[in-house]
Design goal:
- The protein has helices spanning 5-16, 25-36, 40-52, 57-64, 69-91, 99-127, 132-158, 162-180, 194-227, 234-253, 258-269, 278-281, 338-345, 355-359, 362-383, 385-391, 398-424, 431-448, 452-481, 486-494, 497-522, 541-567, 579-583; strands spanning 283-285, 292-294, 300-301, 308-310, 321-322.
- Residues 271-348 and 574-584 have low confidence and may be disordered.
- It contains 23 helices and five strands.
- Helix 1 (5-16) packs antiparallel against helix 6 and helix 1 packs across helix 7.
- It has one domain (5-263, 351-520, 532-567): Up-down Bundle (Growth Hormone, Chain: A).
- It has 584 residues and is an all-alpha fold.
- Helices cover 68% and strands 2% of the residues.
- It is a multi-pass membrane protein.
Length: 584
């Protein structure tokens, strides 16, 4: 196996597949509430503290700029283990920390995930700069699926022992992170050659295909368990988990399989093997490695490679400025020249801002506000998902967690690949944020209906929107502010997400829920409530008002995303007609 950027991507996929366990909080939040006799506000405050742990990623971003990526990954794995082990010992009653220490511990655990996440994202954005949205879609899809993956393992091997599940959460990501830390590092690029470009697209498509296959398989498992829960035996659940792990292994291996990918492409397309060396194809055009700007400000180009092969003996130096009808020193076969295609298909070069300069721009604060409203609403739903199912007297709340995770994966894939496609057609990426906010609004309104079947559909819509945000925001940050200090700027922006989650989850959803608990219990003044039900509310009113409020926040997000699209329109300027067409 070649150790290149594809091996780094495969390793990052494995690490990210353990990076979304914060979304499985609903699996053990009810157990936490019963064992420690917490109110819903306290449960939401722990969930908010968990989300605040993501802010530790700012320190990881500073470290990422000073040391190799494996240092950030290793420290993140240790922090994850430390935080979740304290949670485990608290649940198993081996220690009784004060409430603030428990909140701090779970925050540190999630902060470790944030460190590993930024190292994987920052490194692979530099390794695949021409496919930022696609790569982020893959990595963030693994994060989205991680919840469903671990829930499936929990049902097959650990249910109903929640303590053993938390032990798996503490140990599993730590081992994988430390084992693969050295693979997360910058690699040399393979370049813009036509054969490399086609091979890259095939690798990405096959990787996407295996991830989608895994997501569909997990969706089938969840639906099967929902309809045949009483008929599924333990061996069947174990078989489900084994097949899932096998598909995961295939998806991790897909990016590094160079020869099978090339063979499959030739077999499916009927194409002959392309010549790989410049000597076999013809002569070189020497291109100056300076940036090129199309007159009129329509396209900004960068990182043009020195070797652009054509089949003409004619060589011509490229000037720093072209008119759109320039023939670029080649004949009528211009449309087939790889070099010219590479020039006009290269991405624009964003300004490489420092953190200080980025904070002084309006785009930074608009993005932070979008992150607070979009992912903030999603986290508010995640932290209360178990109680939502309980309020509707729904069994198997783990299924809601799995549905959320799977559709979060789909959202990340669609937003990553789809926004890249729209970007190539001239549409600015921030417009995709509007669709994400609309989907979040629709999902919250569905959840507010309080119907059990609609509850599953609503959680899927919220997961779809939530996943889309986590593919779009890093891409937009890298394109608006550059890659120079991307990890620090990105983590500084998303550090506002926990504040939004805390305000929306603990101060809005949790407060309104506890008020409805008192109202619900007032209707049964003579009833003796069990320990399990003393802080529990039943009925659609428990979360109805709070979910409508979250939907209204999403409407505000649509307006703010529109402002961002207008403010960044100059960054995303593209020529809507290709130079090749105008030259003819």
């Amino acid at each position: 196996m070649r150790i290149d950027q594809w091996a780094g991507l495969a390793s990052a996929m494995a690490i990210q597949a353990c990076g979304g366990l914060t979304y499985t909080y609903a699996v053990y939040s009810e157990h936490l509430k019963e064992v420690l006799q917490f109110t819903q506000v306290q449960v939401d405050e722990i969930g908010a503290a968990k989300d605040f742990g993501q802010s530790l990623g700012i320190l990881g971003g500073l470290l990422f700029n000073l040391y190799p990526p494996f240092v950030t990954v290793s420290i993140g794995a240790v922090l994850h283990f430390f935080g979740y082990m304290i949670v485990l010992m608290t649940l198993s009653r081996k220690m009784s920390p004060p409430f603030w220490l428990l909140c701090t511990a779970i925050g540190i655990g999630v902060g470790g995930d944030s460190w590993m996440d930024l190292a994987c994202i920052g490194t692979n954005l530099r390794n695949f700069q021409e496919h930022r949205g696609t790569v982020l879609g893959i990595l963030k899809a693994e994060v989205g699926l991680s919840g469903a993956i671990f829930v499936t393992i929990y049902k097959a091997f650990f249910k109903p022992n929640v303590d053993r599940y938390v032990l798996l959460v503490a140990v599993g990501p730590t081992i994988i992170g430390l084992a693969l830390a050295l693979m997360i590092r910058p690699y040399s690029s393979e370049g813009f050659g036509e054969s490399n470009r086609a091979n890259t697209q095939w690798r990405f498509q096959l990787t996407y295909g295996t991830i989608i296959s895994l997501a569909v398989y997990l969706l089938v498992i969840i639906l099967t368990e929902a309809f045949l829960e009483d008929e599924l035996t333990k061996p069947v659940l174990i078989a489900f988990a084994i097949v899932m792990i096998t598909i995961m292994g295939i998806s991790f291996a897909m990016p590094v399989l160079h020869s099978p990918v090339a063979m499959l492409k030739r077999r499916m397309t009927g194409e002959r093997a392309s010549m790989s060396s410049a000597q076999e194809r013809g002569f070189d055009i020497l291109v100056d490695e300076s940036n090129i700007e199309i007159s009129g400000g329509n396209v900004m180009l960068h990182r043009i490679h020195k070797s652009c092969t054509v089949e003409h003996e004619e060589q011509a130096p490229l000037k720093g400025e072209f008119e759109t009808r320039s023939k670029v020193g080649v004949d009528a076969n211009l449309g087939e020249d790889t070099c010219v295609k590479n020039i006009f298909e290269s991405p624009f070069e964003p300004p490489d801002m420092t953190v200080r300069k980025a904070i002084q721009t309006a785009n930074f604060w608009i993005l932070a506000f979008i992150a607070m409203m979009g992912p903030g609403c999603g986290l508010a739903v995640i932290n209360n998902l178990s109680q939502m199912g309980r309020a509707m007297d729904m069994d198997g709340v783990e299924s809601l967690v799995g549905l959320f995770s799977i559709w979060s994966c789909f959202g990340r894939l669609i937003a990553g690949y789809g926004s890249d496609s729209l970007l190539r057609k001239g549409w600015p990426r921030p417009l995709s944020l509007l669709a994400a906010h609309f989907t979040m609004m629709f999902g919250c309104l569905l959840l507010a209906t309080g119907s059990v079947p609609i509850l599953a559909l609503g959680s899927a819509c919220v997961g779809l929107a939530y996943g889309a945000f986590w593919s779009l925001i890093p891409c937009i940050v890298s394109e608006v502010f550059g890659l120079r200090q991307f990890p620090t700027i990105y983590k500084a922006i998303v550090s506002i997400v926990p504040f939004g989650a805390y305000l929306l989850s603990a101060q809005v959803v949790g407060f309104l829920y506890d008020r409805e608990v008192l109202n619900y219990h007032s209707h049964f003044p003579n009833r003796q409530w069990s320990t399990k039900d003393i802080n529990t509310c039943y009925g659609r009113r428990c979360f109805g008002y709070s979910l409508v409020f979250l939907a209204s926040i999403s409407v505000m997000g649509v307006a703010v995303a529109s402002v961002l699209a207008w403010c960044t329109k100059n960054v995303y300027v593209r020529s809507r007609t290709t130079p090749l067409e105008t030259a003819q």
